[in-house]
Design brief:
about 220 residues; alpha/beta; Spore Coat Polysaccharide Biosynthesis Protein SpsA, Chain A; 2 domains; four-stranded mixed beta sheet; two-stranded antiparallel ribbon; 6 helices; 10 strands; globular
């Protein structure tokens, strides 16, 4: 992304004329989430300064700032002090396209430790396929055909308070989630989920086109 947005954190990259973080905060507010913890590292001070002006009215922001790179698992654990009970966690460089109320209801029904949003994509191997049983239980990651369609992790999670004991390592995606799956405590929700990521120049261009159309 530095070739496209060289001097600011990705969450502040302008998309259709608006910092991307504003879309994320609005989406959370739309689902009634009034307390948001931002896990920050690179140029955190820029996000701390800008974020209050991007949040919808009434939304409370908390800033969890790393003193050194902690990885996605470490960043979550660092923010643990603000987490009470069941929480929603998400990537900062992707836009959720999921019915969060329906996902929360599915999570409550199956009673797992964690539920991830899973999206159908034409080439699942590019992102790492998620092997999901008919009842939604996640059996494994990175399995299945080398090419072709499948489910991938869309970067939105519902975590039970009891799940925190199993979050360890550097990468939430490559270490903590497979660990939860091995405990038969990880489920996937895929109904109507779309995967939209702006972590690459191509993804950034796609997000510009999508959000530009939404604003038109």
């Amino acid at each position: 992304m530095r070739s496209v947005v060289p001097d600011i954190p990705k969450v502040l990259a302008p998309v259709a004329g608006t910092p991307f973080l504003a879309y994320v905060l609005r989406w959370l507010g739309r689902w009634g989430i009034s307390d948001v913890v931002l896990c920050l590292g690179y140029k955190a001070e820029m996000v701390v300064a800008a974020a209050p002006g991007l949040a919808p009215p009434g939304q409370r922001l908390h800033f969890s700032v790393e003193s050194s790179p902690q990885g996605t698992a470490g960043a979550l654990l660092l923010a643990r002090r603000w987490a009470q009970g069941r929480v929603v966690a998400m990537n900062g460089d992707s836009l959720p396209v999921v019915d969060l109320d329906a996902m929360l209801a599915a999570h409550a029904r199956h009673g797992g430790l964690c539920t991830l949003a899973a999206a159908h994509v034409p080439e699942a191997a590019r992102f790492g396929a998620v092997d999901v049983a008919p009842d939604g239980l996640v059996r494994a990651f990175g399995t299945g055909p080398v090419t072709g369609p499948g489910l991938v992790n869309a970067g939105v999670y519902v975590l039970e308070d009891t799940a925190w004991a199993y979050i360890r390592g550097h990468s939430f995606e490559r270490e903590a989630l497979p660990g939860l799956a091995s405990l038969r405590g990880l489920y996937a929700y895929s109904e109507g989920v779309r995967f939209m990521d702006m972590g690459t120049p191509d993804g950034y261009s796609g997000m510009e086109a999508f959000l530009g159309g939404e604003r038109a």
